[in-house]
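forwarding from the other thread:

> can someone predict this with beta-D-glucopyranose?

sure thing
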Amino acid sequence: MRSKTLTLAAVGAGVALALSACGANSAAPPAGGGGTSAGSTSAAASGGGVKVGVILPETATSARWEGFDKPMLLDAMKAQGLDADVQNAQGDTGKFAQLADGMITQGVKVLVIASINSDLGKTVAAKAANAGIPVIDYDRLNLGGTSKYYVSFNNTKVGELQGQAFADALKSKQGAQVIEIEGAPTDNNATLFYNGQQNILKPLYASGALKLVKSQPIDGWDNQKGGNTFEQILTQNGGKVDGVVAANDGLAGAVITILKKNGLKVPVTGQDATAAGLQAILRGDQYMSVFKPIKQEAEAAAKLAAALAKGDTATADSIATQKEHDPTGNRDVPSVLLEPQTITKANVKLVVDQKYVTAAELCVGDVQSLCQAAGIS
Ligand code: BGC
C-alpha cells in the first residue's frame, strides 16, 4: 500500500514538473489568455533582473548545502530568468535573520528559505508576508509557519530507506546492538527521518531481532557533538555496538572516526551522498547513504519562484500538487516532494554518473583502486 502511494506521488511530481516546464515557456511575451499583467510581461521579457533571495542554513552540518544546493539553485534560477542571491547563514540564527531582513529591504520578489529552525523560519516568513513577498520553504518545513509552498523530498521515505538498508545489513545478526544518532530536534526533517527509520526498525526491536541501546538527537546536526555523544553511549555500553543509524553522512563520518579509534567496523547509515560519504562506502566503513536528487529540488524551487514572482499562483499550484502536513500549524502545505534513493557500494557510480560528485574528487588516495573496482573513472 505504502509503496503504491509513493509511486503515485512520484508520478504526480513528474507530471507537475512537466507542467511547470510549459509554464516557464509561457513566461515569454504573453500568448493570450489575458491573465498576464503588464508588469510581469516586462519582467519576463527582460529575461533577468527578477530578484529572488535564497537563504541556506549551514555549511558544517552537511556538504550538500554549498556543494549541491547552492550551485544547482543558481543554475536553476538562471534558467528561469531569475537573478538569485544565494546566501548561507552558517548555522547562525542572527545572521539568517539579518540576511532575510536585507533581502526583504532590497525588494526580492520571492524568498526561498531552508531555515535553521522552525521558529526562525516562521518569523522570517511573517516579515516577508508583511512586505508582500511570497515565501517558499526549501527542504525544511517550518512548523507553525505561513509559507505558501514547500519543496523537498519524501523525508519519511528517506528514513525508511535508511531503516531498510540497515535492517538488511544486520539481518543475520540476531539481537544486534544498535545506537541511533539522529538529526536536530528543531529540524522537522530529522523527525521525519526518525519516523521513517522507526517504521522499519520498531518491529525489529519489538521482536528482539535488533536491540536498541540508545537513540540520541543531536542539536544543530553538529557533527562533532554527534561523534562525542556516540563515544559516550558506546563507552556506557561497554564498548559494544553492532550497527549505527546515523541520520546523515556528516554524523556518519563522526561516528566512523570513533568506531575506528575503538577498532570497530559495523554497518553505519548516512544520507546526502556526499563525496566523503561515498568514499566511506567504497572503503566499507559506511554501509549506505541516501541520494536525494537536489538538482530536481532546485529546479522545482526555481519554477515555483518564477511563477510566484509573476503572481501566477495558478501555475505555482500546478507545480506543487503534493501536500506536506504541518502538525503544529494543522495545515497541509502545497508541496513538491521528490523521491530519494538508496546508495550502497553497488551503485555509488550512479551519483558520479549524475554529476553530483566527480571521479576526480572521489577517487583519491586509497579510494583510487576502490573506484576502479566499482567501475568509476
Ligand atoms: C537535510 C539533510 C541534511 C541535514 C543537515 C536536513 O534538513 O534534509 O539533507 O543532511 O538537514 O544539514
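Residues 58, 61-62, 64, 139-140, 183, 187, 189, 221, 248, 271-272 surround beta-D-glucopyranose (CB under 6 Å). thats all i got for now
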